[in-house]
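For the sake of transparency, this paper describes our internal protein records without simplification. An entry from our holdings is shown next, in its original layout:
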Amino acid sequence: MKQPIKKRGTSIIKNKSKKRTVPKTKSVIGTVRPHHQKYGTSKLEEDFAREFLDKLEVKYVYQFEAKDIGRFFDFYLPSHNLIIEVDGGYYHSDPRVVDENQLNPMQKHNKRVDEHKNKWALVHGIPIMRIWEKDIRENPKMVMEELKKRLYIEDKKITIAEKKNKRHINKIK
């Protein structure tokens, strides 16, 4: 009998009728980080989570799914209502790394998908922050400063919105 192929980050669950794989999960500051079966987990995303989000002690959802378009975002920070996409230079066509006139079909496809995801986030009122691999690897200090600045800005907007949504209580007796 052939052994089932075990993909990275999955475990085998036996059922009476058949075997199936289920993604493993890890707890990250109160959220779940699954290994996405179709798209995989990038080392860049794992490094970003460890070096930036975990150090800032930010709660996040890893591989956040936009079900209506069938796409996944790298990170969603629910308390900040912010999506963070970590884009690899080659795969997402960083202009500093790849010549825009010589994109291969995969890179063109990824650019269309990124545009589609940007539009979805815009329609749903969720700001999206894109961070390039080159910046993460070569200038992490700048990335950390931008992230802190953005999170503070988003915190301030949420605080203002919460104050506006509270009922006005008339204290005149």
Remarks:
- The mean pLDDT is 76.
- DSSP finds four helices and eight strands in the chain.
